[in-house]
Amino acid sequence: MLNPLMTVTETTLIELGWRAHFSDQLGPADMPGAEPVRVMAVHRGKIEVSGAGAHHLIEPYIPGAEPTDAHPTIGDWLLIDRETLQPIRVLDRMNLFKRRAPGDPHKEQMIAANVDSVFIVASCNQDFNVARLERYVVLAREVGVHAVVVLTKTDLTDTPEAFVAATRAIEPGLHVEAVDGRDPAQVARLAAWCGPGRTVAFLGSSGVGKSTLVNTLRASDSIATQAVRAKDDTGRHTTTVRRMHRLEQRGWLLDLPGMRELQLPDAASGIAEIFDDFTLAAEDCRFSDCSHGVEPGCAVQAGLATGALTPERFDRWRKLAAEDSVARLPGRRRSR
Fold first, then answer.
1. Which fold has domain 96-255?
2. Which residues does the annotation say bind GTP (predicted)?
3. What b/e sequence results for 75-90 when a residue is b if at least 16 CB atoms lie within 10 Å of its CB, and e otherwise?
4. What percent of the chain has pLDDT over 90?
5. Which residue numbers belong to the known binding site for GTP?
6. What mean pLDDT value characterizes the chain?
7. 3-class secondary structure for 302-325?
């Protein structure tokens, strides 16, 4: 069923996020029969698209397209035939979030396209996990999208500043906002990234309060929320359809299914940026192929010995680097 909130009569392309990056890809051959539309929701077997005053539920498959373009993802811009509504092609993306497919490390799964900012959501309770946050920040840096970490459920702790400090330690200058997701006054601090035509994606585990934040940003309670399990503060998925939601600030929000274990695709540059203290130290190792274990002249081990580098970050750095090495093994099928 089409989202009733999306069946508008006057929605301009600019309001949907259209910009020169996409219009520059159109030529005389595309007009007048082709119509640009954006993917607003992904269902099983169908996609919802919106254009200038039009909203359609169409087939998601584009015959003859490259693998990453054959099945458009949420946030994509594509051209459709104005008469038949058949998709013609996906316009080149500004960016693309993807992950290694759960259960198959040789495949990649598209998450969202053409995002301006990403809100990485974590809660101030037992489910708070620095290693998981680092994975999301690495993903944002690799894609080239500005990341804002939003710490929720501040009402459940007497020391929200401790969670903020642990998060800011991930990377110098990382933008962190701690809010009670039910309080419109606190959530209003996020409005700067939600302006007209802007697209914000929410990433985070299930149960961290993403749906509550969405409801507050939209001044609506139409998004279902569920209680977390008391014993470990984890939650169940409340988002089953990937959908773009209109915000009061006239931007768009992608509330994605929670991903508890984010297996990164190729992410070498993002890892190097987030763990630049280890990357810089490694450049001073005696051997260029140093494994940072027992080799003589290892600058990383020297930094650990002096306390300049921490063993906790060292373990997480090596784990992410090892995953990235696996992602680069020959024979992997990669997206463009």
1. Rossmann fold (3.40.50)
2. 152-155, 204-212
3. bbbbbbeeeeeebebb
4. 33
5. 152-155, 204-212
6. 80
7. HHHHHCCCCHHHHHHHHHHHHHHH
Q: Tell me the per-residue pLDDT of 166-196, one tens digit each, with 9 for 90 and over.
A: 999 988 899 999 999 899 999 999 999 999 9
Which residue from 195, 90, 97, 196 is spatially nearest to 147, judged by alpha carbons? 97
Q: What is the pLDDT of residue 89?
A: 92
Q: Is 27 buried (19+), middle (13-18) or exposed (0-12) by CB count in 10 A?
A: exposed
Q: What fold does the segment set 275-327 form as a domain?
A: Ribonucleotide Reductase Protein R1; domain 1 (1.10.40)
Intervals of the chain under pLDDT 70:
1-11, 31, 100-106, 220-241, 255-270, 273, 323-336
Between 2.60.130.10, 2.30.30.140, 2.40.50.140, 3.40.50.300, what CATH number should domain 4-90 receive? 2.40.50.140
- Phi, psi dihedral angles at 42 (to 5 degrees): -120, 120
Q: How far apart are CA 117 and CA 94, in angstroms?
A: 12
Q: Where are the domains of the chain?
A: 4-90, 96-255, 275-327
29 vs 301: CA distance, rounded Å: 60
- Is the omega angle on the peptide bond into residue 32 within 30 degrees of 0, that is, cis? yes
Any residues with CB less than 8 A from the CB of 100 and at least 6 apart, and which?
107, 108, 109, 263, 264, 265, 327
Asked if domains 4-90 and 96-255 share a fold, the reply is: no
Known binding residues for Zn(2+) are 285, 290, 292, 298
